[in-house]
Amino acid sequence: MTATAKAKSTCPQCPQPGDKGEWYHFFAMVFDVKKARELAEGEEIVHVTAAQLVQYGIRGERLAPTARTFKVGLAGVNEDHLQHIPVEALDRPLLFATLPTLVVGAANHVLIDGSHTATIKVRRGDEKIAAVILSPELSRECCERGWQEMARGFSRRARQSR
Ligand SMILES: [Zn+2]
Description:
With about 160 residues, the chain is an alpha+beta fold.
């Protein structure tokens, strides 16, 4: 077994034998990433800039050796896992879901797939990075849990602040 293969087998972010799927958690919401990829096929490809991704939380530089992960949205990017990303994954567009409600002052798009490939691309100097922004309808379709609660929660908060 090579060193990389061994690291992959213990990597919390690499797919492991027996895994049922890939999930992205955002507060109470759970997105089915595999389903999202299927739904994204044939959707319009847009380009986001490296600067936008850095603003979102992608780190342009490698972290200090003592820090292994950084937060993007609520998902961590793992420095070690960056070495495990297969080359073909770099051909896939980043996937953003649109949240049920526009939250004033916050992004209403969350990066549900591609935080590691985004990091690789920003670091190698790509300026424009291909992405699919799923419509609210498609986002809802790949949201396994939490969509209603999120929509209700935000509208309740909006009412209270009035
Ligand atoms: Zn990994």
